[in-house]
Design a protein that fits this description.
Elements (H helix, E strand, L loop, with lengths): L3 H11 L5 E4 L4 H15 L3 E5 L3 H16 L4 E4 L6 H7 L4 E3 L5 H9 L4 E2 L1 E2 L2 H9 L4 E4 L2 H4 L1 H7 L7 E4 L8 H6 L4 E4 L9 H7 L5
Parallel strand pairs: 1-2, 1-9, 2-3, 3-4, 4-5, 6-7, 7-8, 8-9
């Protein structure tokens, strides 16, 4: 069983290095490896491989192995069923990300001793997550919520740290970071050479 305080400390450390995260959704093994390398070389250590198909599991295993060679760790995303938890862990994932907040998934992750970052989009979901001992949450879909949501939600929940996911790229990530988001997650932007210099600039923002 992973205590809530340990989960908070894990994510505090995991996301201390950079305000960006990479999401490699449905890219397959070789493309995932290539985009992960782009992220790592840019300075983005946090990489997520969503786990939805057998091909995703293969990609996750490959990216986890490549990350280990660099002394890095990878997470498995789109965890929507407790049964995915041991699969992701066996593939080498060091932590998990969910699109929504399911107490059963949170319990399964804790039972397996692996940190989980569940998704929220409403004050009620944030409040439930806090009641479960969670202080790091994924806000999804961030582009739909908008930067203003994060400014407002900090009022009643000043101790919650957010990773903004969904529809972010080099053009709008700074708006979310300015609104108080701790980490902005990007995906296809990492395959756009024009966006890489702008993402690199974001990585030099003062914390």
């Amino acid at each position: 069983m992973l205590p809530a305080d340990d989960t908070t400390a894990f994510f505090d450390a995991r996301f201390a290095g950079a305000p960006l995260m990479a999401i490699l959704r449905g890219m397959g093994r070789e493309r995932s490896l290539a985009v992960a390398a782009t992220a790592w070389n840019l300075g983005i250590d946090a990489v997520e491989v969503p786990l939805q198909t057998p091909a995703d599991e293969e990609a996750l295993r490959a990216v986890c192995a490549a990350a280990a060679e660099r002394g890095l760790r990878v997470c498995a995303g789109t965890i929507v069923d407790p049964a995915q938890v041991p699969v992701a862990q066996a593939a080498g994932a060091a932590y998990l990300v969910s699109p929504g907040l399911d107490p059963a998934v949170v319990a399964a992750a804790r039972a397996h001793g692996i940190p989980v970052l569940p998704g929220v989009a409403t004050p009620s979901e944030v409040q439930l997550a806090v009641s479960l001992g969670l202080r790091w949450l994924k806000a999804f879909p961030a582009s739909w919520l908008g930067p203003a949501w994060f400014r407002v939600i900090r009022g009643p929940f000043p101790d919650v740290r957010f990773v903004a996911t969904g529809g972010l790229d080099a053009g709008n990530a700074a708006e979310f970071l300015d609104a108080g988001v701790r980490v902005a997650a990007v995906g296809s932007a990492l395959e756009d050479p024009a966006q890489l210099p702008r993402l690199a600039t974001l990585l030099t923002r003062p914390s």
